[in-house]
Amino acid sequence: MCGLVGFIDPELAGSGSGPEIVRRMSDCLVHRGPDDEGVWKSPSGLVHLGFRRLAIQDLSAAGHQPMVSSSGRYTICFNGEIYNFRELRSELGDRAGPFRGHSDTEVMLAAFEAWGVEPTVRRLQGMFAFAVFDAVESCVWLARDRLGIKPLYVAKGPDWVVFGSELRALLRHPRVTATGSVDGAFRYLRSLYVPAPHSIIDGVEKVRPGRLVRLGVGDTGVGDQRETSYWDLTSIAAGRGDAADSFDEHAALDELHELLRSAVGSRLVADVPVGALLSGGIDSTLIVALAAELSDRPIRTFTVAFDDPDFDEGPAAAAIADVLGTDHTEVTLSPERVGELIPEAAQLSDEPMANPSLLPTLLVSRVARRDVTVALSGDGGDELFGGYNRYRLFPGLLRRGRLLPHRIRRPLGTALDTLAGAPGVDTVGRLALRGYIGSQHSFAARLRRAAAVISAGTPGAAYREFMSVAHTDPPILATGPRIERERQPFDALDAPLLDRMLLQDQLEYLPDDLLAKVDRASMWASLEARVPLLDHRVVEFSWRVPGHFKIRDGVSKWPLRRLADRYVDPKILDRPKMGFTVPLERWLRDDLREWVGDLLEPESLKRRGLYDVDRVIRARDRFLSGEPGLELGIWSLVLLEDWCRSRGVTFDQAPSART
């Protein structure tokens, strides 16, 4: 796990400043690669690559990057892990020539030599982002893994390109300025993250998962550009399995078991200590159980506990660790520790991210890093097998809303939104729906989202509103993009509602929120996080099985539960879904109240050039006075403002930025 940077820039080719700039870019990624560094430039001086290394496979100098292939044709910077590199090495045989070491990077280069870049990428099993220069074809290839586990940002001009693992690195290049994207801010304030291909910086985009980009390099800089999809999740979903009577669930369970055993086994391979993050839920329990089964020594496991019982999965995780015989460590995230971590929130985020579990993920990553360099994570199970409550709640809400006459939907939505702020509504709602939403969740916030769903024009727009967990109408000066006109994966798939929701989440929420959170928090601690459930073979399996195999009689993640039952007494796991969340509302009103007031101060907000200041202040005051259901909106605003302050980012509100 590492950090890569690079650029193609004719203006810098003969200036002599290219190596200094690329080193400056890579130096700000030292948290991603504390073990080694390297820079490289092409003979023409047009292409520069930089790298920071966290040594996982082949700890010797033979694993140094940028790495050049045996013939000298390819030069690569590679962030990630290729789990089938041993099989590829064996398949290459004599065509690879002698290897200098045993890293997966060297195997990739040998595969490029034998098969070419695009055919090789289709063979890779792993998580990766890479940049490789081909001296024969005079081009640079950029690639990102199938599920978007590893990040890759790109900024482009008429004849130049700048790329890297993080935004902070791109901002070190003179071509990239700290001007915020109104479009990106709008999307972030709705969803708590900026979805690909957008970013929070104007002119910078994310490479989409499963994409391969070819950049031709000529005498005057970047020439022809081509982007292809080497793995298309939408096409895979379109060929999904149906609920045929011939479906054999016992055979499917066994197949899934073997796929997961293979995925976990390949992710235990490393030249450094490997552990696992254990939340106490079904997914992480199953991953740890498989790791314990495959390992010849007790697995190190790590859990975050809270001092609020409504949020604390510590006891459940400890019970599971005891059953599985792991070497278990628990760390408590108290309000005091939150206060200590808050100053780092803007820095570790790289791009604004308001998922409240970012801070506990950072804490558990830091604790794990004391003992291991790699940690397995249980992320992905909810998105593959229907684990969230919304997969049960949204269809019913949508169905009831569609029964209403169109003319009364919007007025009713407005009335429900107003009701959400009424005194006592949140308390009553939580008690009434405790079995559905959990006591740690805000009923008022969900009532506001239900109001937006009822008011929406189409099912796709309704799901988009349902997932707008922060602000359905962000308090910014520009109107924002007309996202309701955008065709979403949800709209493109002709399938049952559950499948459409799963596809939308797998293409956006999973990579741009959950996986970005894990990547940023773990890498800030110089810890490599691996996600076995997102082995692409497991993902493809999930689309071959029918919906009733995923959710049965109201029970979510049915196959994962049944597999976990093979290792742990079901009674330990049979409890309401809690999710990896935090007591955010209490923290913001009490321990972090002064921090909120400082960041959401009118004069500072005006200088940013983005906010509708009056609306922000009204929302802040309503929240601090006790109105429920506003905590995620306030959290998203304070983190955005903190992030912008730390980087000096302001927003251009010229007419071209508006829709």
Your description of this structure?
The longest helix has 28 residues, at 497-524. The model is unreliable at 654-659 (pLDDT under 50). The chain is α/β, with parallel strands linked by helices and 659 residues long. It is built from 31 helices and 19 strands. The protein starts with a strand and ends in an 8-residue tail after the last strand. β2 and β3 form a beta hairpin.
**What amount of the residues lies in strands?**
15-25%
- What is the overall shape? globular
The averaged pLDDT comes out at 90
Q: State the strand order across the main sheet.
A: 2-3-1-9-8-11
Oligomer: single chain
Total beta strands = 19
Secondary structure tally, helices: 31
What distance lies between the first and last C-alpha atoms, to the nearest angstrom?
Answer: 39 Å
> Could you estimate the helical fraction of the residues in percent?
40-55%
Given as residue ranges, the uncertain stretches (5+ residues, pLDDT < 50) are 654-659
Distinctive features:
single chain; 659 residues; alpha/beta; 6-stranded antiparallel β-sheet; 15% strand; globular; disordered C terminus
